[in-house]
Fold this protein.
Amino acid sequence: MPWKERYTVSDERTQEDVQWPDSGRCAFIVVIDPSPPCGPQGLGPAELDSDQAHYGLETALPRMLDVLDAHRIRATFPVPAMLASQAPALARELVRRGHEVAAHGLRREDVSALEPHEEQARLARTTDIIGEVIGERPRGWYTLPRQTDRFPGGALSTRTIGLLIDAGYDYLGNSQADDIPHYWVDDYPARRAILALPYCYHHDDQYFIEYPPVWHGGNNLERVETLLRNWRGEFEAMRGTIEQPGFGRCFTMVVHPWLNGWGQRLDAFEQMLALSHNGPPVWNPTAGECARYWTGAYPAATALKLAPSIWQDHPGSQG
Amino acid sequence: MAVAAQHRIVHRIPGFGWPDGIRCAVNVTHDFDAQLARRAGNEPRMELTEGEFGGRTGIWRLLDVCSKHRIGLTMFVPGRICELYPDALREAARRGFEIASHMWEHRVPAEPELQRDHLKRTTEALEATTGQRPIGQRAHGWSFESMANERYLYVSHDMADDKPYYITEQGHTLLNLPFFWALDDAMYFKFGWFGGAPPAQRIEDPDTVHEKWMTAFRRIHAMGGYMNITLHEMHSGRAARVAMLDRLFAAMKQFDGVWFATCKDVALHTLQAFPAPGPRAR
């Protein structure tokens, strides 16, 4: 088997001693996923007209935008094309207020079983629709987990990365392989890779906050204190204190407006934003800005260190 | 006292005790699964990246926090890791940590021939990569005969007692250093642990786990017992959890007479001070 295909997406060892702009002790990326809950088919007419869609987009999101403004924090919004075309004014408002709109599939559907030409066609259509709505093509592509997914990492097909590179995307928004940006290798001999930004489900609100199982496989939980301690713990471990440097990595939190518009949840979200400007400085880019910085400071040509494969095929082993 | 269950005999060790000056022993163990458990379960590609975090990033932090506190880390390593992350393994051995074995590709083959082959290949790969021949093994369901043939002395997976004890199977006796689910980080930090459905998720924060494990430790210390903590680099190698382990180890070191030993240290003490009943795997 060539390299470590089907096991490994990047090089063997992480980048140490990362430097961030603006004297940032760590990077702080806020991802706000505005989609209402859906299953593997993604957003259809029913999902786009659900209570969660109305509440999330019309009540919660404006409130969260005001909280972001109050703390001068910029966020990245992965938006499915169908959502952008249903709410174009909202998408443009996000950009106008300094946030980034990234692509989140045509309708946030599971692409892992699509025919190759179908996946390619949907990707091109998504890029066109979002580009038309916001006036520039999206630079990043997300595939965040849906509420009903059996696995919490998000789904892609074996071709998705190659298609994103072909289509000129700058970054994949969510990979669990590191807690800093890293290169996802699509073709080992050609060293063909795309930058992937870190995602970790332990910092994604939907795994801690109640939504009943009758609605898209909800989890029955209301553990906002646990979520907040997880967020704070990771953020503080990365930033460190004035005396003691932290790990200095990239802390990414993912929130969903339909879950976060009120009460103790909005409070937890706001506490995290406040924490980011109380203490040693952190760098708060959008995902696209982070990707642009990274590919300049740590370009694949020098930073991606692919060891020669020592992988062997053994009889009686998985390939 | 021995209790027979099917073909297995459990031999508790009456009057078990630690070397002079030692009140309780802590084995910090690490199952170096990286993406192998995910791959063995045919999980989708994005899940493999969860394990990849462990191999490229988390493992180095676990080595550092254990070195900092002079913890005798024991790493249970699948043989395939020698081809995926050989540098991390060599560094662990260089720092004096124990290399033990944890299947070939994180599965226990049903076919006896293949099982023997996997164990032999794992043992040889670990020795060739690290210079240490493993004497311990963690994987429930492995044949005692094949472990005896490869000269293993102990296992660490069963939980019929909470102190070291012996198990006889297929006429071979091995020491068991008991494992306990509530001291396994995956129980707190893994979505879908053992197939748990979304409504069964209870992902914990590091402070809560710190509190549970310190409470367990205080009782174990008071009883003069044994604590076997299981970490996974993909879970406990995350920044907040390494910071938690740093606090946990510092707090445990405040207690008198704690032996932060490797599993091998505990095994050699037990084999010498409380020898196995009857013929032992050798």
Q: What stands out?
A: The mean pLDDT of chain A is 94. DSSP finds eleven helices and eight strands in chain A.
